[in-house]
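user:
I keep going back and forth on a fold encoding question. Separate attempts, laid side by side, tell us more than any discussion would. Would you put together a sequence-and-structure record for a protein of your own picking? Write it directly below this note and I will take it from there.

assistant:
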Amino acid sequence: MIGSEDGLQAMVDASRGIIEAPIFAYAPDGRAFAISSSYGPDLHWHWAEILENRGMTSAGIRRLRDQINLPEVWRDTYPKTRSSVMGGHGYMHCSLKPNGFMAGHCVVFGFDKPFRRGLERIVDILVKVMERHMERLYWVYSPTSQVTDAVALFLSEGEFDESEISLFLRALQWGSEDTFRVYVVRERVDGEPVLLSRLLNDVLHRFPYTISFVLENELVVLENESRSVVRDSIATQLPSLLGNDFVCGVSAAREGIRPCRLLYRQARYEAHRCIGEGVALSYADEHSASYFIGALRSDELLVSYAHPEIIRLHRYDSEHETRFYETLRAYILSSFHLSDAAKYLGLHRNSLDYRLKRIREIIDFSDFDALMSKPDEDKLMELILSFAIIDAQNGK
């Protein structure tokens, strides 16, 4: 049974004469892995609901979440007998944790009679065999592979149920404020990808702290860096995985699940950069400056919002081959500290004093004087961005 496609169902059916109670094995999202086939819907209304839906619906999981402490129940690592809120019957629960991950749950129902003494030990044996089977077919039963629909909708800014994200984070034992990174892989091929599915299976098997799926002909990998270790990190094995067949854009790492929407867009941008520059890997961490400059250059309207006196000083330098613009920039970036600005420019302080006097003769210095006497963060940001825009649009 272990390793066969219908292994879990075969195990449940074979346990009929030993456990003598209906068994239900399901994924964290409620989808059935296996259901005792010899028990019909007349047994109990809850069992009928499970049979009809081939598992539990999202509404059913929410109902359990609201009525019992579901995270506490899911921590059962050994079969534990509990009382059900759905009809008062007893049930025995144990989480399925192949390789230490919560990949599902095994429930034995006591609808029509109490459990006999010592049944926990028998169910524990069944659970361990199930986990061996799930380890063998990791890419099928990985808990991360079962959240792909919700995560894909979340990352691509589609409509999603926020409670489902919260529920699956708990199932994976991930925190909403963990540190995440996104990878986007594209195959070097015209038209439909050929090898992407094979790479997906490889990633699912190798990297347990990732959620991986194919979206719009791209392999998307969401990695939880807070839970991984160096040897398991996808970054350490990425070059060998890509070979000559793929390119990959890698986002920055950020705390929290919320920023992952932007990280996905960032990783896609970096994957596009790979194609444009003819490289296999592109890391967002290495391209912050070039992205900022590119964004500043792409909007011609921005320069019209730059401070007019800074624009005037830049034009004066261009016409007279002077260097007053860079002097004022260093002075402002140094928070108007003469010594720091002089050191940055490689000038003697007296030389800087002379330049500043000349700048006052060329432009209206009143806004800068006002900022020195009364700090204003918005005005300071305007000046700093003015320099950045002018520099970017003049090829600096």
